[in-house]
Design a protein that fits this description.
By secondary structure, the protein is mainly alpha-helical. The protein is built from 13 helices and no strands.
């Protein structure tokens, strides 16, 4: 802390004191971070495709979770955050780790053995649609509106367009596509479970997320040796793809996401969901040379339009969803503040927000 120097004794009047100098580190503008997050998650499908070109899907998923957990562990150590306590909490996090990480990550990795990364990215965009269907069944306070129901119908019409239903799904790998759609369905199932079991937890977002990813890593660490064998070689490019997928697409992306939610609220932060399939498609076509029929981008746009409608809510609901940014005190330089709302693990919005409107795991592949 700096203070003003006292006036000399010979002076007849006191000099005006200088204002204290406060050094504040400016964080990167949220729009730039939003664009980076969209790009990182959009490229995740390409990284999965490259990784599975040399390693088994379970190995790719294990590597992804391992490096993602390592990034969050470093962040927790830097912020001096502790792991959650309580057997009950760890039990719920174990289920959440399976539904939100281990299962969908593995399904996407297996699906990309037989389908293009572009199609996997578009399937991921259906999560808000599945989320609305499930929320209407499992969450009595989430009442449907005509606009949201219309969005649901439009969204699934877009899915049929992507899949080429009028052609009898010819040329489509049904198994791989089903896995990708099941992966996108797993996210809202996990959100609803966590919302019912862990909402209002006193633990921080980082603590719960780190524990959740750690448990998912353990789950894949047990399963992977049972279904795969040690690779005979470790090709560099696929290995770097797996490292980037975990460190950037999982660990760093989650840290960026929570910073966005804290700064601009979940309603704005969730918009990242609609940029991911666009980036995934562009990356797959330009870098992997994947073929793109006319119905794929057209159907994707219809899916995104329907998903956007399912997220539309009244002004009061949006205000409640964004309440997490109100009353947020300034965080130390370089540390993203956390919203003043119930701490929830990866992919779970504050309790005021609908799971279908969650800005995180609906977006992350």
């Amino acid at each position: 802390m700096t203070t003003a120097a006292p006036a000399p004794a010979s002076s007849g009047r006191a000099r005006p004191s200088r204002p204290s100098v406060v050094t504040r580190r400016r964080t990167v503008d949220w729009r730039i971070r939003f664009a980076v997050l969209s790009t990182v998650w959009g490229f995740s499908f390409l990284l999965i495709k490259v990784g599975t070109g040399a390693y088994a899907p379970f190995q790719v998923t294990f590597g992804r979770l391992f490096f993602g957990t390592a990034v969050l562990a470093v962040a927790m150590a830097f912020r001096r955050d502790r792991l959650p306590r309580g057997v009950r909490t760890w039990g719920h996090l174990t289920v959440a780790a399976f539904l939100l990480n281990a299962l969908p990550f593995s399904l996407f990795a297996y699906s990309e053995l037989t389908i293009p990364s572009t199609l996997a990215g578009i399937c991921n965009a259906t999560s808000p649609l599945w989320g609305m269907v499930l929320s209407l069944v499992a969450l009595s306070e989430d009442r449907p509106t005509r606009r949201r129901v219309a969005g649901l119908g439009i969204g699934f019409l877009g899915v049929l367009t992507v899949l080429g239903a009028w052609q009898g799904f010819s040329g489509l790998d049904v198994r791989g596509t089903a896995m990708a759609l099941l992966a996108s369905l797993s996210y809202p199932v996990g959100w609803i479970y966590v919302r019912r079991t862990l909402a209002g937890s006193s633990h921080s977002h980082l603590s719960l997320t780190g524990a959740q990813l750690g448990l998912a890593t353990v789950q894949l660490g047990v399963v992977t040796p049972l279904f795969t064998s040690m690779p005979a070689s470790f090709p560099l490019v696929p290995l770097l793809a797996v490292v980037a997928l975990g460190a950037l697409g999982t660990g760093l992306a989650l840290l960026m996401q929570y910073g966005l939610v804290a700064e601009v609220g979940p309603t704005t932060a969730q918009m990242v969901t609609y940029f991911i399939p666009v980036i995934a498609t562009a990356a797959g076509v330009t870098l992997l040379g994947e073929q793109l029929a006319w119905n794929t981008p057209v159907g994707a746009l219809i899916v995104l339009a329907g998903a956007a409608l399912t997220q539309s809510r009244g002004r009061s609901a949006r205000t409640a969803a964004d309440a997490g940014r109100e009353g947020v005190s300034p965080a130390p330089a370089g540390v993203a503040p956390e919203p003043a709302s119930p701490a929830t693990p990866a992919g779970v919005a504050p309790k005021a927000a609908s799971p279908a409107a969650t800005p995180s795991r609906a977006a992350q592949p």
